[in-house]
Design a protein that fits this description.
This protein is α/β, with parallel strands linked by helices and 273 residues long. The chain has one domain: Ribonuclease Z/Hydroxyacylglutathione hydrolase-like (Metallo-beta-lactamase, Chain A, 4-Layer Sandwich), CATH 3.60.15. It is 35% helix and 22% strand. Strands 1-2-3-4-5-6-7 form a 7-stranded mixed sheet. The protein has a 5-stranded mixed sheet with strand order 8-9-10-11-12, with no helix packed on it. α6 crosses α9 and α7 crosses α9. The longest helix is centred in the C-terminal third of the chain and has 24 residues. The model has no long low-confidence stretch (mean pLDDT 94). The structure holds zinc ion (ZN). The site of zinc ion has 5 residues, from loops.
Length: 273
């Protein structure tokens, strides 16, 4: 079952596309359209709904926040419709030429993420007729991820930097210390309104992101302390009474897990040594 919701906040048009597979959790993404700029392209699984909805907009440029398949699944199709430049960070442009393979479950949930060779690297700002968005690199969740900051309107488009104030699973490729640093970096900016790709939380964004920072810092400190005492990842997991969310772990084919969060901290601590 698929659904589409649209609303406006200030000059921003927000589009929520969601779906639910039988027996699975509801998943969704948000795309944002402001003054000719489209942020992200959504997953290929929702291609028909996205193209039908976005078709009527006058998109003159697109920014892709990172290479994950729920953000980059419709690059070619949107470029064919709008014939406009598609920007991304230099590292995202490189990754999209030969994106990492995606698992069967990622394919089932979000759909294919084919390579794309026509991204234009941008690492400073995106200008529209009325606004100027600073591109802020925020690696951690993905090495190539960036957020867009509009200082006059005090908007922050955070891609997947927030998602929720507690996080119970990571991909194997996610970095914990980097993610903490990226959140600290954007909290130093002067913004009031947060637009997250999965959970916009527009008006309480700052409090929510601060809560997430506290949560990740405590998680890091707890794991690092036991690691320094010589415990293994498994021993740390059990000592801290962590539990896997098996619905998430199984439905992601093992790609998403809490153990990945523990291992991310251990990797960061190992680099310090
Ligand atoms: Zn992502």
């Amino acid at each position: 079952m698929k659904s589409i919701q649209k609303y406006k906040f200030d000059e921003i048009e927000v589009f929520q596309f969601s779906f639910k597979l039988p027996g699975a959790i509801k998943l969704g993404v948000h795309l944002f359209y402001i003054d000719g700029l489209l942020i992200d392209t959504g997953p290929s699984r929702l291609r028909k709904e996205i193209l039908q909805t976005i078709n009527s907009l006058s998109v003159r440029q697109i920014f892709v926040t990172h290479h994950h398949e729920d953000h980059s699944g419709n690059l070619k199709q949107l470029q064919l419709i709008f014939k406009c430049p598609i920007y991304a960070t230099p590292s995202c442009c490189l990754m999209m030429k030969k994106p990492p393979p995606i698992s069967l479950s990622q394919k089932i949930y979000w759909g294919e993420r084919p390579p794309f060779f026509d991204l234009t690297p941008k690492d400073n700002k995106i200008e529209t007729d009325n606004f100027c968005f600073e591109i802020i690199p925020t690696p951690g969740h993905a090495v190539d991820m960036a957020v867009l900051y509009e200082p006059t309107k005090r908007w922050l488009f955070v891609a997947d930097l927030y998602v929720s104030y507690t996080i119970n699973y990571f991909l194997e490729s996610e970095g914990m210390a980097q993610q903490i640093d990226s959140i600290k970096k954007v909290l130093e900016l002067d913004w009031d309104f947060m637009f997250c790709s999965h959970n916009p939380n527009i008006k309480c964004g700052r409090n929510e992101l601060e809560s997430k920072l506290k949560f990740l810092e405590k998680f890091y400190a707890d794991v690092a302390e036991l690691y320094q005492q010589g415990l293994t990842a498994r021993q740390i997991f059990s000592k801290l009474n962590f539990k896997e969310d098996w619905a998430v772990k199984l439905s992601s084919g093992g790609n998403l897990s809490k153990m990945n969060m523990v291992k991310a901290v251990i990797r960061d601590e190992g680099r310090k040594a």
